[in-house]
Specification:
- This protein has 224 residues and is of the alpha+beta class.
- 22% of the residues lie in helices and 32% in strands.
- The protein has a single domain, classed as L-amino peptidase D-ALA esterase/amidase.
- Strand 4 and strand 5 form a beta hairpin.
- The protein is globular, with a radius of gyration of 17 Å.
Length: 224
C-alpha cells in the first residue's frame, strides 16, 4: 500500500483529512478525523466498536470486490499508515468517500458516505447469514460538543438511524439502508461540574440537532 501525500484537510467542527492510497493497482481514498483526546464514542464499526474513549475515526474506501477476511486488521494497518495512533474507530465502504455529505446544526456535525448498490429493508423475509456481506454501506460519523450518558449514546445511535432512513425516503430510495451500514457517534468526555446530557432522542435538544445534521448529510451523500 502506498499513501500519497499530502493529505487534504477540510475545516469545521469535525475536520477531515483525505488520505489516498493504491491497493492492487486501484486508487482508493479514506477520510480520517483526528479527534484527539477528550472524546467518548459509540460505534457499530468492525474496528473500535462499542463504547469507549477513542482518538480518531477512519472511514476507508475498499474495492467493490473486497474479499479480505480480516477487516479489523486491515483498517488498523490503514490507520497506522495514515499516522493515527491510540484507540480509534475504523469503518469501510465501497463508496468513494470523496463524495461525502456533511452538515452542521447547532454545534452538532455529521458526515456521511453512501454506497447504495446493495440495499433493502431491514425487516426482510430473507434468512440472515453469518457470512461477510458485500461492502456497499452507508457510514455515518457525528460529533456532539456535549457529554452524553451511556444511555444517551445508545439513544443517539437510534436517532441517527431514524434520520438516515428518513433521508433515504426523501431521496426516493425504497429502502431502510444496506446490510452493512455503520455508525459512529462522538461526544465530549465531561469535565468536572459539567452537565451530562441524559437524552438524545429526536425531540431532545441535542438529539434534534443530531437528527437534522445526519438527515442533511445522508441526503447529500445519497444524491445520485
Amino acid at each position: 500500500m502506498t499513501v500519497i501525500p499530502p493529505p487534504r484537510t477540510t475545516t469545521g467542527a469535525l475536520p477531515l483529512q483525505l488520505v489516498t492510497r493504491v491497493e492492487d493497482g486501484e486508487q482508493l481514498h479514506a477520510l480520517l478525523w483526528r479527534a484527539g483526546a477528550g472524546w467518548r464514542m459509540i460505534s457499530s464499526a468492525v474496528l473500535g466498536g462499542g463504547i469507549g474513549e477513542r482518538a480518531w475515526v477512519l472511514n476507508a474506501q475498499v474495492s467493490h470486490g473486497y474479499r479480505r477476511t480480516d477487516p479489523a486488521r486491515h483498517l488498523a494497518g490503514l490507520a497506522h499508515d495514515a499516522g493515527a495512533h491510540g484507540p480509534g474507530v475504523g469503518l469501510m465502504t465501497a463508496a468513494d468517500v470523496q463524495a461525502h455529505g456533511r452538515a452542521q446544526d447547532g454545534g452538532v456535525e455529521a458526515v456521511a458516505t453512501a454506497g447504495l448498490g446493495v440495499r433493502g429493508w431491514a425487516a426482510s423475509p430473507a434468512r440472515g447469514t453469518t457470512a461477510q456481506a458485500a461492502p456497499g454501506t452507508i457510514n455515518i460519523i457525528a460529533a456532539l460538543p456535549v457529554a452524553l450518558t451511556d444511555a444517551a449514546l445508545v439513544n443517539a445511535v437510534a436517532t441517527a438511524t431514524e434520520a438516515k432512513v428518513q433521508a433515504l425516503l426523501d431521496e426516493g430510495y425504497d429502502c431502510s439502508g444496506t446490510p452493512t451500514d455503520a455508525v459512529c457517534i462522538a461526544a465530549r468526555i465531561p469535565r468536572p461540574g459539567e452537565e451530562i446530557q441524559a437524552f438524545a432522542g429526536p425531540r431532545s435538544l441535542w438529539g434534534a440537532r443530531l437528527a437534522r445534521a445526519v438527515h442533511s448529510s445522508v441526503r447529500t451523500a445519497a444524491t445520485p
